[in-house]
Amino acid sequence: MKIAIIDYGMGNVRSVLRGVEKVGYAAKVTGRAEDILEADKVIFPGVGAFGDGMKELRSRNLEDIIKEYVNTGRPLLAICVAMQLLFDESEEHGRHKGLGLFHGKIIRIPADKSGGLSRKIPHVGWNIVRPSPHSEWEGTIFDTFQESDSCYFVHSFMAEVEDKKDLLAECDYEGISITAAVRRDNITGLQFHPEKSGVAGLNLLKQFLDCEK
C-alpha cells in the first residue's frame, strides 16, 4: 500500500511519519503531485496559520491536486490546521478562502466566559474527545476509540461546521464545545494531533491505515 504524507512546508511531517511507522506502516513524505495522486491513502498534516497554509498549497500547485485526489474516493486524513483548511473559509488574521471540501468556517475560540471570566487561549493540552450527537463512530477511525480517551490539542481557532452530520467528535473546553473531528465520505479531519496523543492517537492512525476504505 502506498501512503503519502503531504509536505507543503507547514506540517509536522516527521512527527506524523514516526507515528505511522510506530503502527507498522511505511509512508513517503512528499510534495509531488504524482506521489499524492498515486497513493492509496494520504495524510495531510498542518501547523501554523490558515492563510499561510493556503498560500503554501497554492505556491506548490497542491490545492487542485488535493481536490483531485479526494475525487478518486481514496481516504484522506487531515490533521490540526490541515483539518481547518478543508473548510470554506477562515477569519484568522483576515478572511481567507479554504479548500471548500467541508462547508463552514474557522473562527477564533471565544475568549470570554460567563461571569466576566476569560478563557485561556490557545487551547493547549489533553482533552477528552466524545462522540458528536449527530453522527456514529461505527465504521470510522473512531470505531475502537474509548469515550474516556484524551487527545492532545494545540489551537486558537476552531471549526464551525455548517452540516452537523459532518461533525464526528467534539470536546468541552472551559464551557464551550469545540469540533474535535469531522468526516464526510472518504475525508476525515482531526483538530488534535493523533501522533502526539499516546496510545489512543496512534490507534486512530492505525485504524485509518488498516481500514479498507
Key features of this structure:
213 residues, alpha/beta, Rossmann fold, eight-stranded mixed beta sheet, four-stranded mixed beta sheet, 6 helices, 14 strands, 31% strand
Short synopsis of the structure:
The chain has a single domain (3-210), classed as Class I glutamine amidotransferase (GATase) domain (Rossmann fold). It has six helices and 14 strands.
What does this 3D model show about the protein?
With 213 residues, the chain is an alpha/beta fold. It has one domain (3-210): Class I glutamine amidotransferase (GATase) domain (Rossmann fold, 3-Layer(aba) Sandwich). Helices cover 25% and strands 31% of the residues. It is built from six helices and 14 strands. The longest helix is centred in the C-terminal third of the chain and has 13 residues, at 198-210. The chain starts with a strand and ends with a helix.
CATH topology: Rossmann fold
Q: Which whole number gives the mean pLDDT?
A: 95
In CATH terms, the superfamily is: Class I glutamine amidotransferase (GATase) domain
Strand content: 25-35%
Count the helices. How many? 6
Structural category:
alpha/beta
Q: Could you give the order of strands across the largest sheet?
A: 2-1-3-4-14-13-12-9
CATH top level? Alpha Beta
Which oligomeric form is depicted?
Answer: single chain
CATH architectural type: 3-Layer(aba) Sandwich
The Cα radius of gyration reads 16 Å
Number of domains: 1
Number of strands: 14
Largest sheet: 8 strands, mixed
Q: Helix amount, in percent?
A: 10-25%
List unreliable stretches of 5+ residues: none
Could you state the order of secondary-structure elements as H and E? Answer: EHEHEHHEHEEEEEEEEEEH
What does the overall shape look like? globular
**How far apart lie the N and C ends?**
12 Å
